[in-house]
Amino acid sequence: MTTTSLTTGPSWARLPRRHVPVLVTLALLLVMYGIGVSQYRAFSNIQVIFNVFIDNGFLLVVAVGMTFVILTGGIDLSVGSVVAMTAMVSAWLLQSGLPALVVLVIALLIGPTLGFLMGCAIHFFDLQPFIVTLAGMFFARGMCTFISDASIPITDGFWTTMSQYRIGDPRGNFVSISVLIAFAVVLVAAYVLSYTRLGRNVYAIGGNPQSALLMGLPVARTRIAVYTISGLCSAIGGILLSFYTLSGAPLIAVGMELDVIAAVVIGGTVLTGGSGYIFGTVLGVLVLGVIQTLITFDGSLNSWWTKIVIGGLLFAFILFQRLIGIRYK
Amino acid sequence: MTDSRPVLTMTGISKSFPGVRALHNVDFRLFPGEVHALMGENGAGKSTLIKVLTGVYGIDEGTITLGEEQVAFNGPMQASAAGVSTVYQEVNLCPNLSVAENIFIGREPRRFGAVRWGEVRRRARQLLARLDLDIDVTAPVASYSLAVQQMVAIARAIDVQARVLILDEPTSSLDAGEVEQLFRIMRQLRDEGIAILFVTHFLDQVYGMADRITVLRNGTLVGEYPTAELPQLALVEKMIGKELDVLEGIEEHSRRDLAALEGGTPFMEVSQLGRKGAVAPFSLTIHAGEVVGLAGLLGSGRTEVARLFFGADRADRGEVAVSGKPGGLRNPVQAIERGIGFCSENRRAEGIIPDLTVRENMILAMQASRGWLRPIPRRRQDELVEQYIKALSIRPANPDVPVRNLSGGNQQKVLLARWLITEPRLLILDEPTRGIDVGAKAEIQKLVVQLSDGGMAVLFISAELEEVLRLSHKVAVMRDREMVAQLNNDDTVNADRVMQTIASGSQREEADK
Amino acid sequence: MNNAKDRYRTILGHRLFWPVAVLVVMLLANTIYRPGFLSIEVNNGHLYGTPIDILRLSAPLILVALGMTLVISTGGIDLSVGSTCAISGAIACLYISQAPDQNNLVTVFTALAMALGVALVLGAWNGVLVSVIGIQPIIATLILMVAGRGLAQLVAEGQIITINSGPFRAIGLGHFLTLPLAIFIALGAALLVAALTRRTALGMIVESVGGNREASRLAGIRSARIVFLVYVVSAACAAVAGFMMTANVSSADGNNTGLWVELDAILAVVIGGTSLAGGRFYLSGSILGALIIQTLTTTVYAMNISPQTALLFKAVVVIAVCLIQAPAFRAKFRRRGRGTPPPATPSPQQQKQEVPA
After folding, report:
1. How far apart are CA A33 and CA A281, in angstroms?
2. pTM for this one?
3. What one-character DSSP code corresponds to residue C58?
4. Residue B5 contacts by C-beta under 8 Å, 6 or more apart in sequence?
5. Could you give the CA distance from residue C167 to residue C171 in angstroms, rounded to a whole number?
6. How does DSSP classify residue C343?
7. B210-234 tens-digit pLDDT
8. Minimal CA–CA distance to A206: which of C326, B140, B348?
9. Which of A266, B408, C147, C255 is deepest in the core (most CB within 10 A)?
10. Does C128 have pLDDT greater than 60?
11. Distance between CA atoms of B190 and A196, rounded to whole angstroms?
């Protein structure tokens, strides 16, 4: 019948829209890198890029977990504290003489368990994710100082190996093992989000939770799963951080959740849920990393400019998302 | 066709919610290869019956038999896996996902746990081709019209080997052509042996499509009838029961002399008012004491007209004059200043403030127009609220309960009171009687007559033609977002003629002024 | 008998019952642990004692919570209050530190006015983002939460500004009528906000906007203006709280002034019974919530537990209060009778089947 009139416009005008935020982030990243290269000679050294990954590997992993949560329209404020708690617990257990493998397993279990409990509270008691994960944040941070008020150094052989091992080329450029782990997490997450039912359900719930329920999707299971995944990613991030610093400190990663949320948003994921990509999150983390590197290279700019610039970028991106109308609700 | 054994039998179904008995001892049968209409007024229990069947709610008493087996689904997924699929009135799809994914999500073809996207797209195209729909299945569902979304939802429903397809008011947001397309698909599916449970408010559609009709009233079964043996009038009587008499009492009030009203100065004149994408430019004049009815199907632009009259949406062209003074209506505040009130059709989203009390909800508009610095004195509040609770017989008669605890009809009355308190000169009522019980409906209709007798102008919108004709001096007919005719409601005008106008979109019926 | 039961139920059902109960239990526990807890002594014409300290120390949180209550009532949230505290504190201290006479009253008031002015601009910024541009409040205020810390450090050029100004110090530590001045400031602000909202129709209009923004607009309320206004009020409250925080230590630290106060304030509001979804707000509940949080902190200090570990207790209190107030939890608890806690993960199907039982 009148089938042709039912479509809305040619496909070339519609398709890119979902990808526009990611493309803009990519462009921004290239521009910033270009500025860096044009201003500072050392910036063009490939190791600068590797260092961005080395310094932000743990942030990337945590941001991947946050992407899952934000895609469902939720938020997880507990990530920074869980990262610290994982590092703290690892350091403490290693200090008390447990073998590295056992410590690793225990440390990797704590985060997901907390995430699972938070997910249950959010889903079954209909509590706001904001408040529940805030409580989780308090709990995890409290556990840190409960374990120890002071930083605990890590001297375990496995940890120091992981920390110092360099994978590099003959010219001296290298990355740490943490970077490879972070990449592995990114690839697994990207696969899960686009090729598994769990991943697709995450998008569906973010798009319209009511519909998802009526379409018979396992909303409860998925919702709890994303907070568990975020907990797992935070735990991995905590392990990576302890590789990086070789210690567990009770006040490390304070306020990290803000950087993570900023990275996810700058990466083009919409905070109301349902739209965004892991690849965007990677770009978002890189943008934050490059800003820091630029400010370090400059030397005359003070560290607080990082925060102001991140705030400014957040504003620009949110405004931009609003303008191109990425809001299905 | 229906002499085989029923594919679905529901026996003695009862279901209660706290304080409400939604279903009481209801029986229902569905045969393969039939379209079976489930009829009843709002609140009769139609949607509860559907939700009980698909496992959204558990049942208190009774049994459901599908084929040979007794079943009790614990959710829509299980129901659809067993062959009972539902398409809801409000399209329940995920707007951000592609068409193909919306059809298959939850049961995507997979290999080693990975979704096979190529296969998903291929099968989606195939399935939509069966429904004669040729669209880009990779585009997000949000980029298509409601009608297409409805088709996508049906495609999702029939992809599983559906034995029973439930269509819950699928036509309410479709235009005539789209409805015809839907019917064609329904017939095709019926001929394939699928049993279709069809819920609609449009009587014509029931008589056009349904093989049999089951009527519910107040949660109880009235009866099951072959369509051919149940004349329309009998059906209406069975649906609304004896209270029909109440409504007919009003008839005498109407059909007053329009000429007398038109002698005076018009209260509001709009000319060539329009808004792109909402409603084509139209002109309409409303006099003091006049009731203008807006007739047309859902989605024909009725609500859009009302919103332009109130400044809820900004018109992008045309002129407005209130009491002879020209000037645009840019927002509700300006409209209220000029003595206009507006009860939205969407009581929940645009009407009541559920948290606030009856009192606060009633005085809200008046308070808003006074500004927050001049609160209405408590004593004055009490007077006003008491007066309108009594006048509109609002139950419970307690001004300090949250309005969310009231029934739909009483909430509607509270909204009416909110505007009556502001003593408007024009009251716009968009579907004021939808979803409320018959008693409250009659009271609201009587009120409209009283108000217009008192000199208030009323713009009255309703999906029910009878109601519009009963109350209006003049009927403006909407079709496809265009005002196609204005009819003086004299003896020559009846439901058939308005229906024809809606159907044909004829311009010739323009009122002779 | 029946009457007594009814009364019991009314008290139990009162929205302030649980917050008050929690506060009383905490005070009792403290008194048992340390019998001198509630004692107040007169020294130098001023009252001293733990209860007075709790009141004094909770004053900034009460202030922030007042503004936050209004914001949350409109269905929003203001994450930037901590940064606003830091910025306003830093500006006030910077101005005073550069003045020739730090004890000059005119200097101090000019400093306060300037800082307050800047805070109002920040509030207006949030208000515009939320009400005009229509950005989700949590994100809109996140921008200032992140950037504001940087701005505060920018103002102070990364230093901790230490001042030696008697009048400014008085905001945090001064006394008036034997009681700390801070208590009066918080009380005054509470009365002012209460009068502003409950003596006029503003409170109802705010609740109306929070309960249903579109319906409010159609009833003739200029919803956008109201939403804008609450963010400005919130920033103003935060600024005064920022003065108090910096006055307490006579120095402004862009990094740490008001750190995480937004979270405590949101908690206080939620404990006080205002729903994060917007609608009805309870100023008295928020004040109680702030007192509960401060009592908890003080208790933990008194028990010689590190302040960070106090977060553990805070987590427990938050979850407990939220659960008690969550309708879903209450319904479950009631159905199962008293004593048996609900299982950790009941499936929704189970819940549904239990409804008819």
Report:
1. 17
2. 0.82
3. H
4. B31
5. 7
6. P
7. 999 999 887 889 899 998 888 877 7
8. B140
9. A266
10. yes
11. 35
Tens digit of each residue's pLDDT (9 = 90 or more) over C180-195? 899 999 999 999 999 9
Q: Which carries the bigger pLDDT value, residue C59 or residue C301? A: C59
Select the CATH number that applies to the domain covering B242-339+425-513 from these four: 3.40.50.720, 3.40.50.300, 3.90.580.10, 1.10.8.60: 3.40.50.300
Looking at B88-194, which runs of residues are DSSP E strands? 110-111, 114-115, 164-168
Same CATH fold assignment for domains B8-241 and B242-339+425-513: yes
Residue with tokens 């017989």: B393
To the nearest whole Å, the CA of B81 is away from the closest chain A CA by: 10
Domain count, chain A: 1
Provide the pairing of β-strand B220-226 with B212-217: antiparallel
Task: Check CB contact of A258 with chain C, cutoff 8 Å.
Answer: yes
How far is it, in rounded angstroms, from Cα B488 to Cα B504?
18
Helix (H) or strand (E) holding A152: strand A152-153
| Structural domain of A195 | 18-323
Tokens linked to B287? 């006099």
Q: Which residues, given as ranges, of chain B have pLDDT below 70?
A: 1-3, 18-20, 41-43, 160, 172-173, 175, 201, 240-263, 297-299, 435-438, 503-513
Contact assessment for residue C92 and residue C111, using Cβ atoms and an 8 Å cutoff = yes
Map out the domains of chain B as residue ranges.
8-241, 242-339+425-513, 349-423
Cβ pair A141:C308 closer than 8 A: yes
Smallest Cα–Cα separation from C85: which of C60, C53, C117?
A: C60
Q: Are B364 and C216 in contact (CB under 8 A)?
A: yes
Q: Coil, strand or helix: which one is B127?
A: helix
Fold of B8-241: Rossmann fold (3.40.50)
Q: How far B76 CA sits from the closest chain A CA (Å)? A: 5
CB contact under 8 A, A135 and C315: yes
Which chain B residue has its CA at the smallest distance from C219's CA? B365
Q: Which of B481, B478, B503, B497 is nearest to B292 (CA)?
A: B478
From the candidates A82, A88, A125, which should be mutated to test the interface with C, based on the most C CB atoms within 10 A? A125
Give CA separation, B495 vs A73, B234, B258, B499, in Å. Answer: 48, 17, 19, 6
Please tell me the least confidently modeled range out of A1-10, A57-66, B156-165. Answer: A1-10
Of residues A292, A262, A287, A266, the one with CA closest to residue A277:
A266
Does residue A8 belong to any structural domain of this protein? no
- Please provide the average confidence, as pLDDT, over all residues in chain C: 84
